[in-house]
Amino acid sequence: MFFSSYLSRRAELESLRIDVERERMEIETEPDEEKRELEGLLAEEGYEPGEVEVIMNRLTKNKEMWLKAQLTHELHLHAEELSTAPVKRAAPAGISFFVLGLLALLPYTLAMARFDALALSAVLSLGALFVLGSKAFIPKLFNVKEGTMSAAVGALAVCILYAVGLLAGSL
To answer: Which of 5, 18, 98, 118 is 20 to 30 Å from 11 at the Cα level?
Structure first.
């Protein structure tokens, strides 16, 4: 999970950097079109024509500010997103996967019947998926629907993988 998250974030950052460079090039080579585009976006956000004119006069004097505004309003991208290191985003995923993997294995370390261990492992895993999906550790973001969805996807995966295991075992 750590490595897939890391590679995913690296690819995402590369894609964002390409978008930034494309916008930078468009500001240099097609400034009138980019101005019209940003003016339209600002108007859609509710700025009055006089306000749009003031904003555009200010932005077009500083190409980096203009670029940031273009990225924010057109691509809904903020410069801070480009500075997040892939490792910082991947580490929580890797640690969570490791800890939850241990939690799922815990029943097999107990003196239990094989099916009982499987059932307990599934319940612990689905409970953990609910807790993580619902963001239970962040009270302001807690969302039962998201937690339920996360656990449901996990339950579907368990059923599919169990069926594949039974099929593979019968070969």
So the answer is: 98
